[in-house]
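Much of what follows relies on a compact textual record of a protein's fold. An example makes this concrete, so a full record is given next.
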Amino acid sequence: MPPTIFGLPLHPLVVHATVVIVPLAALLLVASAVSGRVRRWAGWLTPGVATLALVLVPLSTSTGENLEGQVGGNALIEAHAELADQLLPWAIGMAVLAFALVWLDRRERPRTASDTGGDDVRRADAGPGAPRGLAVAVTVLAVVAGLGTGVQIVRIGHSGAKAVWSKQVASGNQGGEKQGDDH
């Protein structure tokens, strides 16, 4: 992957997509987990957005490593990179649980009247439905994954902003010494 696009570092461009898509996936996951109405409305949107988030996370970390190689590292960038590396397991969990919610919903939900010509019957392929304990476990795990991902994104964003906007990075000081006023 190229480190720049049109002369700009690729990392900030990819990260802006990630900062929108990952929290959106988390919100959709939590809302779908706690509300059958949202789950039915969102349908395949939740696993689709969660999968996109899953793709964006390694792209963000990869472009971040490229950028770190260009600008050099310091303690703030290392802390940011360490937090960012911890996001992938959360993104995997969100994607798996988003698909699990759709699967559970398809097993549990009766066909709509329009699907069956007016009859409200269980889906022929649905089987007997999922065990109640499994549905509860997936719901709880989905809420935990969504909230945990949200917290992790905030932590990563805060550390990245600190790394970008600190006087240490802005002045080119890679050693961490305190800079005096240049005026």
